[in-house]
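S.,

Sequence below, as promised.
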Amino acid sequence: MGTEKIGEEKAQAAIEAILFAMGDSVELEKIAAALELSKEETRNVLKHMEEKYRQEDRGIRIIELENAYQLCTKSELYEYLIRVAKQPKKPVLTDVVMETLSIIAYKQPVTKLELEKIRGVKSDHAVNKLVEYGLVQEVGRLDAPGRPLLFGTTEEFLRHFGVQSLEELPSLNPVQMEDFKAEAEEEIQMKLEV
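The prediction came back faster than expected:
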């Protein structure tokens, strides 16, 4: 910036950017150093900003916390934040997660080991995501050594895909199923040979 002092408007814009980007409170000293202003000059700019935000009836305000400043939402507007936060988040189903969900839907109840045999790779992350999204749940344990968990779909799965029961899922073409099975066995065989 050289020896020229930053103007009031640019200082306000810079402070707003700093406080927004940092999220937490930022010490006055650090803000002043970034703007190449004295602490007193910076404090005056912050006071003008606080007043400006109050007068313009904005949704944000600047608060002072032990000689540090933070950009915050006005408390009287929290109800709007809560409404947004309460809205259910639509899960993003990646190809891997979708593939795992498909296997669970058609083969349930199924263990992670069975999933991994079909997919040929670890499935922990995908299963955990599906449980987190409420599309899959633990439905019991297999009566086998180690008593592995069994997974199946949930009512949320049915709602999400617009079906009333698993019987409404599209049936798989038996020829296609045989092709998939042959491909999977081929992949497993190739991995065993390596």
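The chain has two domains: 8-80, 95-193.

Coffee later?
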